[in-house]
Structures are given as structure tokens and as C-alpha cells.
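Students often ask what a holo structure prediction actually looks like on paper. The answer is less mysterious than it sounds. You provide the chain, you provide the ligand, and the output is a string of C-alpha cells encoding the 3D arrangement of the protein together with acetoacetyl-coenzyme A.
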Amino acid sequence: MDFSFTEEQLMIQDVARRIAQEKIAPSAEHHDQTGEFPLENIRTLGENGLMGIEVPAEYGGAGMDPVSYVLAMIEVAAADAAHSTIMSVNNSLFCNGILKYGTEEQKQKYVRAIAEGREIGAFALTEPQSGSDATAMRCKAVRQADGSYVVNGKKSWITSGPVAKYIVLFAMTDQDKGARGITAFLIDTDREGFGRGKTEPKLGIRASATCEIEFNDYVVRADEVLGAEGEGFKIAMTVLDAGRIGIASQAIGIARAAYEATVEYVKERKAFGQPIGAFQMTQAKIADMKCRLDAALLLTLRAAWQKGRFDQGGARFSNEAAIAKLTASEAAMWITHQALQIHGGMGYSKEMPIERYFRDAKITEIYEGTSEIQRLVIARNETGLR
Ligand code: CAA
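The corresponding C-alpha cells follow.
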């Protein structure tokens, strides 16, 4: 067993850190306050390979491994979580699924545009009445005689929905078959029949635009079906396994930023004649924050390593990804809570980024499978019971 990173992994971590510190961190507060979508920064990340980290160079990506993705995501999330949300959807939920299930033409068209940062991608699974219970979807695609499909229905909570050019959509093609009746489609948002609803005002990750989308007799051509008919749920779940590693990394980035700020603060801030870091109550908090941060990181790296094996034909990594996401997101919530408490009034004030970390951390326990769903996945895997 070797805990060291390769030169390539360290290189992409460096690239991500440089962009995160030079371009993203200085405008993080502005993006949080205004909710403005950071298009220019996303393009810069794309031009540097960070929108398609695991995408092979022949499709416009950086051709790196899942561990590199984790390292880069952490750097971006530590500067601003909203940027890392957009990055994770482009990398994990959009490019990843098309790379695994798409045709050569689909990879050249859709993956290249997103990996190079020229366009934004999205992933549409959730509906107003179905989130965790994803197979309860109502959005329908009806096959026509010529092999095309006509799509009708609504999807909600679509990350990057307001700006996405392409979307991986999941729709019901055969209601009677349940999970096996769902098919994945590649959607061009500039085409007739596609519409957008209002942008959601959110507690955190405010610069990552989120909206409802709607399909009214939208026609998908036969060559725009991703994978086989009825394979959609498996595609969604496989892609979400990868996505959960991305969200775990995002949680670690947010938690690390809060932790590092806190370590500095407890050395400087004095109370009762000494730095507050010299008090045992603060020391216990610092030690516990560090343990949870490291545990989250190690579990996430393990999941990424397992995904690398899966990509080479190895076993599924659903359990490792769920364990990583659950641990990292709950660590991020706990660590940002402690950071805020230690900072006291300054933590509650918008003059410091601590309250932003606290707000941003919460979403990691909700999207790409709530903590309850991660526990369900883990318990099912461990017991074999349903
Ligand atoms: N990989 C591959 N296949 C999988 C799989 C996986 N991880 N998990 C399940 N499947 C397959 C099963 O093998 C089964 O296949 P067969 O029919 O061939 O046997 C099929 O899928 C159905 O599986 P289940 O019976 O286990 O399905 P279920 O209805 O009980 O649901 C669930 C399982 C874990 C609860 C799942 O629905 C789930 O993960 N729900 C959460 C959905 C979610 O994460 N939504 C997030 C929205 S996207 C988002 O947040 C993006 C964003 O904007 C950032």
C-alpha cells in the first residue's frame, strides 16, 4: 500500500489550486452574494482540463484518473463550493455517463464540448414529486415509428439548468417495467419543445444556477438515445456512484477551508489572557475536526481508487462511494458548525467566509442521494436485505 500521489496527480492538483486561489477565491464572496453564474471561471477551468479530468485527450479532456479528480475538486471547493458543483456535474454526471455508454459520435459531440469548457452540461433525473424515489418519475418519452421519441414532462432541481447547452435526461419509456422502463436521452436545450422555469433561490452554492425544466413534445432523434432503451436507470445509478465521489470531494474542500481558517483563528484570537487555541475545549474541537477531515479524505480516495478499478472492468464501487459521501458530507456539516462556533460572532458575520462554508456544506448531505439514501445503499450492500 502506498499513500503517495503520482507526479501527474500532483500536477493537476497544482493547476486546480492555482486557478482556485488566483481566480475563484477572490470572487467567491461576490458570486455568493449576487448568485451570478461564474461563466468566465468555468471556461478557464475547462481550458485547463478541469471540466473533463477523466475524459481521454481524444475527446478533449485531461485523461487523468479518479484520484486526480478528487484532488482537483477539493482545491476548487475549498475556494468556492458553487464552482465545484458546476465542475462535478460536468465531470461526473455528464461526461462520465456518455464516456461509458455513448457512441463514438456522441462522445465527440457532447463530451468534447463540455470537457473543453465551451459548453455547460446538466443531468435531469429529479422531478417535482420524485427525488430519492427516482423510479417514480412521470416524464415520458414515446417512441415513434422512425425510431425517434417525443418527450413530455418536467424535471426539477436541475443544476446548471439555466445555462446548460446539453442535458442527460432520464424519462420513462415503459411505465410497466419500473426501473427497467427508464431510458436516457441527450438533449439540446436550443431545440423547440424545451423550456426553463424559474431559477431556485438557495441557501448555499448560490452561484450554481438551479432551475426546473420542461419538455413539451420535444423530439429526440434515434441517435440521441444514450445506451439502450430501458437501460436508463442503470446509467443514472452508475453515474451517481461516480458523482457521489465528486460530492464527497466537494464536502472535503469546504470542510478543509473551514478547518484551516479555524486553526489560524485559534492561534490569534485571545480570551482570558491567552490564545483560545490553548484552552482544552478548543483543542478537543480542533482534534475532532482534523480526525473527521482525514477520515473523509481517506475514504474518498479509497472510493476513487475503486472507481479506477471499475473503469478497467473491475467490480462496482457503489458501497465505497456511498460510504465516502455519507462520511464526508456529515463531516463537512459538523466541521463547519464547529468552525462557526469557535469563530463566535465573527463566524456568524458575513465579514468572514465561515458562514458561507456552513451554508454551502448543507447541500452535500442532500443532493446526489441524501444521507438517508447513502445509509440505505450501504445497509443493503452490507446485509443483502432490502
Ligand atoms: N449501479 C448499477 N446499477 C444499479 C445501481 C448502481 N449503483 N443501483 C441499482 N442498480 C440497478 C439494480 O441492479 C436494479 O437492476 P435490475 O432491475 O436489473 O435488477 C435496478 O437498478 C433497480 O435497483 P433497485 O431495485 O435497488 O432500485 P430502487 O428503486 O430500490 O432505488 C435507490 C435504489 C438507491 C434508492 C436509488 O433510487 C437512488 O439512489 N435514489 C437516489 C437518487 C438520487 O441520488 N438522486 C439525486 C438526483 S441528481 C442530483 O442531485 C444532481 C445534481 O443536481 C447535482
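The chain has a mean pLDDT of 98.
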